[in-house]
Recover the amino acids of this structure.
């Protein structure tokens, strides 16, 4: 009888241990696999998600219509933060996973794979960083996320002679670089003319970005650069108040 009781207690202990060690994060993640691939705009698809050894790994297939995925590798950390927010943040498509990520102290790894080249790179959020996904991001984090996502399509043409390069946060400003066809580069433009030129592009082409820059309280440094010789350049910096005015104008158009 004592032996039977011991066997019973052992079985109960094993079942309790199994229940305690089961991962709700993995269970919930497995339940979402039927919704994959999940499209993110025209730039990427979430192709797989899995949980193992305390890591939630997400594979993102990136469209290479605008260039190879390797061109984005330098921005791996910002891109990982961006996609983690898009998927698991407070406004994310799979935000219900955030509490499980936090409670199980899981890290998040985003693997980016080129649609054609199949080249890849990874970006990782530590467990401490991933635990904050359930919180509303700061205005600056929203800005960095928007820049990281928008830069995936850079450089893109404003017109036949002007291309917008990757944007970047530099201290109190966001830097926008316009690459100008060498034959059309005009080194004689004064500050008034530059401001007018930049304002038209900022309002017409980057209106949504202007609003995000304004919300983060940043200024905007615009660079007018010779495409064949980047040592030839001219700049104009909009103050935060000027950016707010441009954002308001863009919204009213």
């Amino acid at each position: 009888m004592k032996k039977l009781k011991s066997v019973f207690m052992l079985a109960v202990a094993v079942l309790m241990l199994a229940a305690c060690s089961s991962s709700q994060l993995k269970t919930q993640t497995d339940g979402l696999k039927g919704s994959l691939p999940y499209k993110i705009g025209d730039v990427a698809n979430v192709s797989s998600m899995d949980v193992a050894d305390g890591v939630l790994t997400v594979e993102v297939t990136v469209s290479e219509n605008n260039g190879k995925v390797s061109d984005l590798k330098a921005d791996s950390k910002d891109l990982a933060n961006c996609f983690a927010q898009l998927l698991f943040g407070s406004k994310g498509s799979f935000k219900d996973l955030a509490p499980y990520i936090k409670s199980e102290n899981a890290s998040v790894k985003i693997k980016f794979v080129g649609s054609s080249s199949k080249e890849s790179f990874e970006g990782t959020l530590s467990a401490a960083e991933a635990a904050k996904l359930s919180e509303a991001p700061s205005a600056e984090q929203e800005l960095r996320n928007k820049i990281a996502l928008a830069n995936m399509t850079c450089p893109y043409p404003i017109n036949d002679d002007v291309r917008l390069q990757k944007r970047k946060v530099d201290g109190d400003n966001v830097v926008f670089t316009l690459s100008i066809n060498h034959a059309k580069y005009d080194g004689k433009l004064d500050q008034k003319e530059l401001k007018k030129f930049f304002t038209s592009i900022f309002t017409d082409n980057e209106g949504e970005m202007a609003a995000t820059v304004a919300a983060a309280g940043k200024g905007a440094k615009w660079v007018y650069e010779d495409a064949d010789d980047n040592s030839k350049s001219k700049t104009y910096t909009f103050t935060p108040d000027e950016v707010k005015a441009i954002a308001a104008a863009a919204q009213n158009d």
User: Anything to note?
Assistant: The radius of gyration is 24 Å. The chain has a mean pLDDT of 90. The longest helix spans residues 2-21.
